[in-house]
Amino acid sequence: MRASGTRIRLAAGLVLLPLLAVTACGADSGTAAAPAGAQASAAPTDDPVAAVRKVESAAALLPAEVREAGTLRVGSSVGFPPGAYYPNGADKPPAGQDIDLADAVAKVLGLRLERQDASFETILPALGSGKYDVGTGNFGVTTERLKTIDFVTYINDGQGFAVKKGNTELGKKVTDLVQLCGLTIGTGAGTTFEATLTARKEVCAEHGRKPYEVKVYSENGATLTALQQGRIDVVMSTINGLRYQAAQPASQTEFLGEFHRLDVGFAFKKGSPLTKAFQAAVDELIKDGTYARILKKWGTSASAIEASRINPPEHPQS
Questions:
Q1: Of 103, 144, 147, 245, which one is least surrounded by beta carbons within 10 A?
Q2: Which of 234, 239, 240 lies closest to 260, judged by CA?
C-alpha cells in the first residue's frame, strides 16, 4: 500500500485516493482535486508519541556521525489514511500511522526528522543516490525490492481489492486473479500491486479467459474517481487503506478482502548502517506499549507485528 486534498497518490505490499491505499504505496504533489465524497475524516486527537523518550541503548547503535548531526532526511510518501495523509490540507502537517511511527522511532533514537514529501515511485531510487537516509510510504517487502533495498519492518499489511458499492460481480472476496479476467483494474504506479498484476497477466490466457486490463494512476483521487464513474471495475491497493476507505460512507466502496499479506517497513539503501538502530527503536516501542497505542489510534491493530525484522523474506503467495 494515499493522500487527500491536493496531494493524493498511491504497495505493502507490501506502495497506494485520499481514502485509498497501497502496501507498496505512496503519495505525490499532484494538483488534482479529490473526487466528491473522498475527503478524509479528521485525524484522531490523541498523541501516543508525546510521552516517548530517548533510549540510549538504541541510540548507541547509530553511526557516530548521525548521532552528532542529530537529523535524518526522510523521503515521505504522504497519501491516504490510515497510513499518511493531510487531514487539514497539504499546507498543514501530515498525520497517520506511518507519521506517528516514524516520529516515535526518531524520539527513541534522539533524532529530528527532516521530512520531505516525495512521490511514491521516486523514493526507493533516491535512497540509492543518497538523497534520503530513510524512506516511508507503506513500502512492502518483496523479493525484488530486497535486491536493492534494506527494510526494517514495523507492520504487516498487504494487497487487497475494492469495488464500487453495490457491485456484486466479484462476490465478497478476490482470492485468485482469474476472477479479474475481462475486467479493468485501477492501481498506483510503481507499486507492488502494479508489479503483481503485470507479472501474472498471462493467467487469463492460461484459463482461456479474456485478459484483464490494468490502468495505472499517479494520483489516488483519480483512481477513486475512475471507480465511481465506472471507467474501472476494481481497485487493487493496500488492505488497511481499502478497509479504511470502505468504512467512510461517502467513498461508496466495498472491500473485497485480503489477497496477499506483505511485511511493511522503513526503507534504506542496501547496506545502510541505520537498520539495526531502527529495528531496536521499533522493538522498544513494541515493548513499552507505544506501538500498540499508535495502531489502536489508527485502527490497524490487526496488522501488528511481535518484533521488528531486518530484510525478512517475502511472504509466499497463498
A1: 147
A2: 239
Residues 68 and 259: their CA atoms lie apart, in Å, by: 44
Tell me which residue of 225, 172, 209, 295 sits closest to 30, measured CA to CA.
225
The dihedral through the CA atoms of 9, 78, 175, 148 has a sign that is positive
Greater pLDDT, 83 or 121: 83
Q: Which residue shows C-alpha cell 514495523?
A: 154
Residue 191: the pLDDT is 87
Tell which wins on pLDDT, 2 or 268: 268
142-174 pLDDT tens trace: 999 999 999 999 999 989 999 999 999 999 999
The Cβ-side half-sphere exposure at 212, using a 13 Å CA radius, reads 29
d(CA 288, CA 267): 24
**116, 181, 193, 252 from 169: Cα distances, Å:** 41, 12, 21, 16
220 pLDDT band, cuts 50/70/90, is confident
Do residues 199 and 169 lie in contact, with contact meaning Cβ atoms separated by under 8 Å? no
Sheet strands side by side (includes 71-76): 112-117, 71-76, 134-136, 253-269, 149-164, 234-238, 184-188, 213-217
CA distances from 317 to 115, 292, 310 (A): 34, 27, 20
Question: What are residue 264's DSSP bridge partners?
Answer: 140, 155
Q: Which residues pair with 267 in a beta bridge?
A: 135, 151
Distance CA(245)–CA(267), nearest Å, equals: 25
Average pLDDT over residues 106-131: 95
Q: Are 255 and 227 in contact (CB under 8 A)?
A: no
Rounded to whole angstroms, the Cα distance separating 218 from 20 reads 13
What DSSP element (H or E) covers 69?
helix 64-69
Q: Parallel, antiparallel, or unpaired: how do β-strands 149-164 and 234-238 relate?
A: antiparallel
Q: What is the pTM of this model?
A: 0.82
